[in-house]
Amino acid sequence: QNAMPSAANADAYPSAPRDPALKPVFDQFGGKPGLIALMNDFMDNLVADPVTRPYFENADRNHIKAELVDQFCVILDGPCTYTGKDMASAHRGMDVDRAAFNALVQDLQTAMNKHDIPFRAQNKLLAKLAPMHRQIVTKP
Ligand code: HEM
């Protein structure tokens, strides 16, 4: 019978490679510094994207980035607290449609790829963001 690798024998064989997928998702994003770096590129993408630019060009982008870092940190089970608005209040009256929502998700994926976030970790985040369209998309 084959012994399953455990944390204990991983310590006994420190040179054995650890499967990166076994790291907590928050760590796969590089922890809080990783999220801060990710959000900088995400916001650059949102401003460069003609579909999302109109929403963000006159917004307080530094504030949004800081809130996103805390929100994603919480979503990824990191040691943070999100004190921003709920998603319905934050996006009320903005007339976000499905195309804008999808464009934002793509801009996030582009940023995650640039930061070499493993796909399985990316998908865990995206799966938690996807249902938020119910609070955010208000324009048919
Ligand atoms: C899953 C998708 C989304 C998430 C998780 C998200 C998250 C957030 C968060 C955390 C904030 C800050 C709330 C606060 O200030 O307390 C925010 C604000 C904002 N979001 Fe989103 N958002 C999403 C989709 C979108 C989309 C699709 C658009 C437009 C294309 C958008 C445009 C904005 C804008 C313009 C603000 C700033 C509002 C203000 O200045 O008060 N968001 N969002």
TrEMBL record:
Q: PROSITE patterns this protein is in? A: PROKAR_LIPOPROTEIN
Q: Which InterPro entries does the annotation name?
A: Globin-like_sf, Globin/Proto, Hemoglobin_trunc
CDD domains in the record: TrHb1_N
Write out the entry's keywords from A to Z: Heme, Iron, Metal-binding, Signal, Transport
Q: List, alphabetically, the Pfam families matched.
A: Bac_globin (PF01152)
The protein, known as:
Group 1 truncated hemoglobin
Annotated source species: Dyella lutea
